Amino acid sequence: MANPALNDFVARARQLRKRDVLDRAAIEALTALECAGVDAMLLKGPALARRLYADGEIRGYSDIDLLIPRQRVALARDVLAKLGYVSAEEVFGIDDVAGIQHSETWSRPGEGSGPVMIDLHWRLDGCDAPDDLAWEALAARHGSIELRGAEAAALGDDGLALHVALHAAQHGPGDLKAIGDLARAVERWPPDLWRRAAQLAEAVQGVPAFAAGLRLLPDGARIASELGLPPTPELDWKIRNRDARPRGTFHIGAFADAHGLRQRANVLRRSLFPTRRWIGWEFPWAAEGKARLALAYACHILRAPLWAARAGRYLARARRASERG
Q1: Cα dist. 112→6, 23, 42, 108 in Å?
Q2: Cβ proximity of 307 and 246 under 8 Å
Q3: Do 312 and 181 have their domain in common?
Q4: Same domain, 201 and 225
Q5: Among candidates 116, 180, 185, which has minimal Cα distance to 155?
Q6: Same domain as 250, residue 237
Q7: Residue 8: enclosing H or E segment and its boundaries?
Q8: 109, 145, 168, 213 — which has fewest CB within 10 A?
Q9: Domain of 285?
Q10: pTM > 0.85
């Protein structure tokens, strides 16, 4: 017979063990980055666990999120590689055709609790300010937390409040952890903190995503109203229908937003002819010879019109939602 109390105890023990492994990895990475001249700040994970959750509450996390300046990404990649991490983007041959990528995942074998993963961010999802300006705004109001006896740089309280709302907007109402963080934040953090978070959202050009994230909960919607945040009907629709978003949506958006024939041709080329490694993951049989590789590319190209049609319909529905207000 199952014992719920025992199961809960085991689950909590596993979470604590995983957190310990990740906390050590975070300090190791932050120290190595600092030695290489790369500024970095913790996002979510340990920072939220310490600043948002009460004593006795455990917020598990499965990776470490670090924010760095965009111009230091190449150097940070070298640091992580020397620490034994491998880029998932390289393994899977991912090409950011639509220009939406804001982070990349690095991993290495763990110590019996699964792989250790670090998400390297150069901007926050939902923020449209140039990467260097966004970094300056967030770094100017950074804070710190105690992590395994060391001081680790992290987002300030207003940055954390901003990020909690942005993260909820990014992942939508189906992400229970993101919504749980948001629920605790709107309940426990004072109005003045949300006011400062709104000011920071304006500085990083993330007000629409900040507002839409807050509105995923009734109490968050009340805060958004009190702050006078603008309506975001199209974004609200996309967030609540993110699970219905078809493949190719971001590619269609990138093609529509491209400036000039050359940029559009580049988006089209990279969409129709992705990296060989990506094709290999999409069609495992493509690795069995040049003929099969060519066939895999043909299959990918032939299904592109269907993806484009579905993506076009999705985006049209989002626009209609915006028109209805």
Answers
A1: 21, 15, 24, 12
A2: yes
A3: no
A4: yes
A5: 185
A6: no
A7: helix 4-35
A8: 109
A9: 245-324
A10: yes
